[in-house]
Amino acid sequence: METALPGWLTPVSWFFVAVGVISAALVLYDIYGRRRHQPNAAMGFVWPVSALYLGPFGLWLYNHWGKNASRGRGEQTEDLHRRTLAGGVPGGAAATVGHFIGVPLVVASGLTIAGTNLWVLIIVIALLAIALLFAFEYFFASADRHGPTGKSAGTALLTAVVTVLAFDIGMGGWMLSMHFGNFMPAPTDISFFFLMQIGLVLGFFTAYPAVRWLIQRRVKVVSL
């Protein structure tokens, strides 16, 4: 079945994918070329991946949060809104990497549910994102140091599951609407990457309330 993709989508896709790549390259250069290394080593990977799909907005987030972190400014100096935006960055990066791993894996496997690989794709990406975000929260997050350098296993798992499920409201919902609207291109098409960028951005914002709740919950626990 052919998709209902308009012809103008291809050049638009090339433009926005290129903008994402350039934004990621600028962040990479600032972190490693200009030696603005992050106190949290994993964020040196998370910020460029985030700029890959958020584009200039990801670059803005990095300029307003990542650079401040590299200069040693603490989380306490930031308001809740900005902390929430920055707190959603690792989850978005985990989902992005989950797409890069999960899409070719599912396509190559040929697995389907109810005659389509979409459900398999959503499940596999979510599981990969949860695993990646759990690893980040447990080994690298510095909010409380019950784990090796991050959070306790229970807190890390709760953060990963809640964040990814909230992220999937936007990302998974977008994928479902594309599929049932006959608007899903082949994974090898440049428009697929652009449409996934849109889904990731939607997921970033649908995860906002969950990330905000997790931050507020953590603050309450710490203050007890």
Describe the structure.
- The protein has about 220 residues and is mostly helical.
- Helix content is about 75%, strand content about 0%.
- It contains nine helices and no strands.
- Helix 4 (about 80-85) packs across helix 9 and helix 5 packs across helix 6 (about 120-140).
- The longest helix is centred in the C-terminal third of the chain and has 28 residues, at about 155-180.
- Residues about 75 and about 145-150 have low confidence and may be disordered.
Topology:
Layout: H1 9-33, H2 43-54, H3 56-70, H4 80-87, H5 89-109, H6 118-139, H7 153-180, H8 190-206, H9 208-223
Keywords:
224 residues, mainly alpha, 9 helices
Taking the sheet with the most strands, its summary is: none
Mean pLDDT: 87
The span between the termini is 58 Å
Low-confidence segments, ≥5 residues, pLDDT <50?
73-77, 143-148
Task: Give the CA-based shape.
Answer: globular
Approximate strand percentage: under 5%
Determine Rg (CA atoms, Å).
Answer: 18 Å
Structure in a nutshell:
With 224 residues, the chain is mostly helical. It has helices at residues 9-33, 43-54, 56-70, 80-87, 89-109, 118-139, 153-180, 190-206, 208-223.
